[in-house]
């Protein structure tokens, strides 16, 4: 049975519809991430699940029970807030046990729960402190502890890491992942950080303007995006979008990129990847989507068996990141980003031979921005 | 509301009563007494006073309507015109002088002054006093035979005159002096808070651009303080229109009725001279005066909030 | 080069001196009335007519104070302002407590439990801060009569509560707007209800605004004259009304020292509050006036 099922949920604020017929279902123990730019409705959806905001239509089921019109306290969920929302006048211990106290859990059990959670999150030495005496990372732990103490059916995390500095964010991310693996909890997690989404999720829902654009595993969302928005949103640096024309010569399809002052660049499309949608777009403008890692530096020793199409371009910017190097170079009328190995010795202005892995390239309809192939 | 409930026809209970039960009504229940109080004691009373102003009430309220007769009487009443003119003079001088002193003191205090806290405390304490106390003190200071005039004369300036308190042409300015003494420190506090709210780096940037300090204040800082000026004017004008206790304690409205303000006019007619109808009409005109200041203020406030 | 720098520092020193002189002169302007009031209140009458405002008291005496407190004539009666001083407290304390409590609950309901029209409710109540009270005097007098509490302390408490909640609501609303709504959401998820969230979560962090509200209401009500003079009888007058009567009683010799002592007595409570909690006083003034 689904631990959480959202069924055709819509939500209006005044005349504006901020959630449009959203449906999601996740199993017990699954980690669902809602991701999207600010204003896409992900936080509203979260609040709807929590019961903090009534929905306009649709239903929400937790563990098979319809909770659509139940108050937040009766839904058996816990939430970790972006601002942590620790009660400022209470100690850490009181913060963690408050929810149990409200549920009239006897004191010894409350104490046991606090000990268990504090132990799990290694915050035992902080129990008697007030939230104002804690660092950002410690507050974050306490906020999670407060959620864990109640052992609810579903956990909601609303951008829990966005107030931490970069290093702490990575540490806590790992910790949340470990916790999930260890406790097998059902989690709905909102973020606008696509790295968090990729690393944590079993299942990602990419949202925009109140719609769910794509619901799938991180691998699916990354490698098989349904449209240009999802493709551009996931991945950093983001996917390069290149305007091109789709052509056909017999059974062979090719993508032609108009290049100013030079001969047009023609990239053959792998025959195995031709789809029906493509044939309808023949002779029409399309968008070629290439991720930075779809480029690779030409290695002469391997060039004989190397796959992909060779292209030459003069590099405009070289950005070494340590692990690899990001290059900016003109392709057609755009400038694209390519990721090459750290050993690549190239300086701005130099001409470089790069291979493009067309087997992983993605083709979009230039008008609808939907995926063609 | 209607169409959403049909959209959920399958659900037996309406949203408000199930989602958070009677909790959803608690906030409204808690606010209800205050709303009722406000509707009755503020809006109801305003209407009531308006109705009284349309009657011929004298000693006791009667509901014998005479239309706008009381307003017409008011317009022909010499004392009302003195009171209104006085309010214009008092109000504009009070507002302008308080602003000038307040801005000046705030800017000077903002120059990393030693003992700033002590000075601020001294400038502001009159605001903690009752206008009655202020009136009593200044009545003593301005008393010609024992106050400042007598003191300066005792220093050898025999011809020195400072007898405004008993001079019906000048008495209105004594109100200005006392009111400025009481409220200018408060304006200083408003501006100082405004100055402290300005980002330091703006001032540094302007100085690096080569502007002198007075110029920085005039060109860069003052424009940032425009909202403060606006609310200060609003509050001061409001104090001026409401001024009642100060007049009662300092001049008693005298000599004669030379220092009457609308607030004292209203009180005198409604409570002492058995002219309830006329008093109500003057109260309504005071309300009109406040609204004339308040509405543009609220309008701009709301607009700026919507835009920003 | 060295010359130039020295000239600059000289100019800087001169302007610094000017700044300090202006500030100190201003301080004298504000302090002088208080100093004169205090000095006059401890001089015997003979010294007042012989000297000037600034003559220091030669034989300081507390007699004017005791007379102002217990014997001076305020209108018909001659029992000083002492009784009225306690009257003021008897009016101020309940009025402050009630209006602050109501304001806190209103502010909480308006910010943390918004509903359709809650902004309108706030605007409706806020207007009460602005009206000139002359416009409510006559209906209020009649209403107090109907309620059977005209000229009583209870009546004055009611008046001050009614016209005070607009301010206290404003204070608490503006304070609670700054408290994250997520705290309330978290408490709702934890299972707490309307009053429990207020009591356990909001109230413990409200100390600063409670102090502001109490101080503001205390000074406003203590310093009130209009309602006091309009709605009190001789035995229920607040001290401001008594002080005004004392100063304007025209029987016998004018005792300026007694007048000043009575003024000091009437001013002391608010001055003490100001000195002890000036920071909150200023915050109240600015919050009460600069809305939002």
From TrEMBL, chain A:
Which Gene Ontology BP annotations are present? carbohydrate transport
**Superkingdom of origin organism:** Bacteria
For the keyword Plastid, the answer is no
Molecular-function GO terms, alphabetical:
ABC-type transporter activity; ATP binding; ATP hydrolysis activity
Keywords of the record, alphabetical order, are:
ATP-binding, Nucleotide-binding, Transport
Under the heading Pfam families, the entry gives: ABC_tran, OB_MalK, TOBE
Gene Ontology cellular-component terms listed: ATP-binding cassette (ABC) transporter complex, substrate-binding subunit-containing
Protein known as: Carbohydrate ABC transporter ATP-binding protein, CUT1 family (TC 3.A.1.1.-)
UniProtKB/TrEMBL annotation, chain B:
**Gene3D superfamilies assigned:** MetI-like
Keywords of the record, alphabetical order, are: Cell membrane, Membrane, Transmembrane, Transmembrane helix, Transport
Q: What is its main location?
A: membrane
- What is the topology of this protein in the membrane according to its UniProt annotation? Multi-pass membrane protein
List residues of the ABC transmembrane type-1 domain.
84-299
Q: Where are the transmembrane segments?
A: 29-51, 87-109, 121-141, 170-195, 216-241, 276-299
Instruction: Please cite one Gene Ontology biological process associated with this protein.
Output: transmembrane transport
- Signal peptide positions on this chain: none
Pfam families found in the cross-reference section: BPD_transp_1 (PF00528)
GO terms for CC?
A: plasma membrane
Annotated localization: Cell membrane
Family, similarity comment? Belongs to the binding-protein-dependent transport system permease family.
Q: What is this protein called?
A: Glucose/mannose transport system permease protein
Query: What organism is the protein native to?
Result: Vreelandella subterranea
From TrEMBL, chain C:
Q: What is its main location?
A: membrane
Q: Which Pfam families match?
A: BPD_transp_1
What keywords are annotated for this sequence in UniProt?
Membrane, Transmembrane, Transmembrane helix, Transport
Entry's InterPro entries? MetI-like, MetI-like_sf
Can you say where in the cell this protein is located? Cell membrane
* Membrane topology reported for the UniProt record: Multi-pass membrane protein
Q: Where are the transmembrane segments?
A: 17-39, 84-108, 120-142, 154-176, 197-218, 260-282
- Any one cellular-component term (Gene Ontology): plasma membrane
Entries under SUPFAM superfamilies matching the protein: MetI-like
User: What positions does the domain ABC transmembrane type-1 occupy?
Assistant: 85-277
Q: Which residues form the signal peptide?
A: none
UniProt GO BP? transmembrane transport
Name the protein family.
Belongs to the binding-protein-dependent transport system permease family.
* Protein's recorded name: Carbohydrate ABC transporter membrane protein 2, CUT1 family (TC 3.A.1.1.-)
């Amino acid at each position: 049975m689904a631990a959480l099922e959202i069924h055709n949920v819509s939500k209006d604020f005044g005349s504006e519809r901020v959630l449009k017929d959203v449906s999601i279902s996740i199993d017990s123990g699954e980690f669902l991430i809602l991701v999207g730019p600010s204003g896409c409705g992900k936080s509203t959806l979260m609040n709807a699940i929590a019961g903090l905001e009534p929905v306009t239509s649709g239903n929400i089921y937790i563990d098979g029970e319809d909770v659509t019109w139940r108050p937040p306290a009766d839904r058996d969920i816990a939430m970790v807030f972006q601002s942590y929302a620790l009660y400022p006048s209470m100690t850490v211990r009181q913060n963690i046990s408050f929810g149990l106290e409200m549920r009239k859990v006897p004191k010894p059990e409350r104490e046991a729960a606090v000990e268990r959670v504090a132990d799990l999150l290694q915050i035992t030495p902080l129990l008697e402190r007030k939230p104002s005496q804690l660092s950002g990372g410690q507050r974050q732990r306490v906020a999670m502890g407060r959620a864990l103490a109640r052992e609810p059916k579903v956990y909601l995390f609303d951008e829990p890491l966005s107030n931490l500095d970069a290093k702490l964010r990575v540490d806590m991310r790992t910790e949340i992942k470990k916790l999930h693996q260890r406790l097998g909890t059902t989690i709905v997690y909102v973020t606008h950080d696509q790295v968090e989404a990729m690393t944590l999720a079993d299942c990602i829902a990419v949202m925009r303007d109140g719609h769910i654009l794509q619901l799938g595993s991180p691998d699916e969302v990354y490698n098989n995006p349904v449209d240009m928005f999802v493709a551009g949103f996931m991945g950093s640096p983001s996917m390069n979008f290149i305007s091109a024309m789709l052509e056909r010569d017999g059974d062979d399809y090719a993508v032609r990129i108009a290049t100013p002052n030079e001969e047009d660049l023609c990239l053959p499309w792998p025959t195995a990847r031709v789809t029906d949608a493509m044939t309808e777009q023949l002779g029409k403008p399309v968008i070629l989507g290439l991720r930075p890692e779809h480029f690779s530096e030409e290695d002469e020793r391997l060039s004989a068996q190397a796959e992909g199409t060779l292209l030459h371009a003069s590099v405009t910017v070289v950005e070494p990141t340590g692990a690899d190097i990001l290059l900016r170079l003109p392709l057609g009328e755009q400038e694209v980003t390519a990721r090459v190995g750290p050993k690549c010795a190239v300086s701005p202005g130099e001409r470089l031979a790069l291979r493009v892995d067309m087997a992983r390239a993605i083709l979009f309809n230039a008008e609808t921005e939907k995926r063609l192939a | 509301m209607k169409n959403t409930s049909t959209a959920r026809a399958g659900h037996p209970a309406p949203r408000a009563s199930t989602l958070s039960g009677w909790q959803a009504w608690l906030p409204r229940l808690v606010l209800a007494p205050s709303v009722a109080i406000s509707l009755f004691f503020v809006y109801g009373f305003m209407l009531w006073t308006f109705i009284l102003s349309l009657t011929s009430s004298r000693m006791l309220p009667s509901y014998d309507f005479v239309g706008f007769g009381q307003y017409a009487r008011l317009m022909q009443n010499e004392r009302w015109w003195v009171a209104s003119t006085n309010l214009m003079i008092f109000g504009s001088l009070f507002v302008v002088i308080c602003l000038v002193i307040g801005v000046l003191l705030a800017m000077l205090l903002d120059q990393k002054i030693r003992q700033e806290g002590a000075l601020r405390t001294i400038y502001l304490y009159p605001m903690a006093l009752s206008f009655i106390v202020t009136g009593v003190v200044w009545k003593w200071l301005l008393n010609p035979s024992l106050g400042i005039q007598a003191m300066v004369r005792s220093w050898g300036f025999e011809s020195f005159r400072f007898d405004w308190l008993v001079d019906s042409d000048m008495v209105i300015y004594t109100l200005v002096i006392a009111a400025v003494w009481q409220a200018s420190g408060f304006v200083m506090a408003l501006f100082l808070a405004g100055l402290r709210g300005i980002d330091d780096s703006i001032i540094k940037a302007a100085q690096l651009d080569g502007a002198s300090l007075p110029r920085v204040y005039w060109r860069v800082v003052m424009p940032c303080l425009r909202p403060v000026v606006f609310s200060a004017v609003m509050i001061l004008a409001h104090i001026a229109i409401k001024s009642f206790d100060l007049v009662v304690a300092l001049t008693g409205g005298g000599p004669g009725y030379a220092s009457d303000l609308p607030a004292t006019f209203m009180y005198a007619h409604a409570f002492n001279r058995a002219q309830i109808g006329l008093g109500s009409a003057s109260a309504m005109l005071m309300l009109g005066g406040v609204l004339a200041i308040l509405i543009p203020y609220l309008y701009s406030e709301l607009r700026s909030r919507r835009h920003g | 080069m060295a010359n130039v720098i020295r000239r600059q520092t000289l100019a800087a020193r001169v302007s610094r001196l000017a700044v300090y002189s202006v500030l100190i002169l201003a301080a004298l302007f504000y302090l002088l009335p208080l100093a004169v009031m205090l000095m006059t209140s401890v001089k015997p009458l003979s010294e007042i007519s012989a000297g000037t405002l600034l003559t220091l008291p030669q034989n300081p005496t507390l007699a004017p104070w005791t007379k102002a407190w217990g014997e001076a004539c305020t209108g018909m009666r001659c029992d000083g302002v002492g009784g009225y001083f306690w009257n003021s407290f008897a009016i101020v304390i309940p009025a402050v407590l009630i209006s602050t409590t109501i304001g806190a609950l209103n502010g909480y309901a308006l910010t943390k439990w918004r509903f359709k029209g809650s902004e309108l409710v706030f605007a409706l109540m806020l207007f009460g801060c602005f009206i000139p009270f002359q416009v409510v005097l006559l209906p209020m007098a009649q209403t107090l009569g109907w309620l059977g509490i005209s000229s009583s302390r209870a009546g004055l408490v009611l008046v001050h509560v009614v016209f005070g909640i607009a301010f206290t609501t404003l204070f608490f609303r503006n304070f609670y707007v700054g408290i994250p709504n997520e705290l309330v959401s978290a408490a709702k998820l934890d299972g707490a209800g309307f009053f429990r969230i207020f009591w356990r979560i909001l109230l413990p962090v409200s100390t600063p605004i409670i102090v502001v509200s109490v101080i503001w209401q205390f000074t406003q009500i203590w310093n009130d004259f209009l309602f006091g003079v309009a709605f009190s009888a001789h035995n229920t007058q607040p001290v401001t009304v008594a002080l005004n009567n004392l100063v304007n009683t025209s029987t016998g010799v004018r005792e300026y020292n007694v007048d000043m002592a009575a003024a000091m007595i009437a001013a002391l409570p608010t001055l003490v509050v100001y000195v002890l909690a000036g920071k909150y006083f200023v915050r109240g003034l600015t919050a009460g006036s600069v809305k939002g």
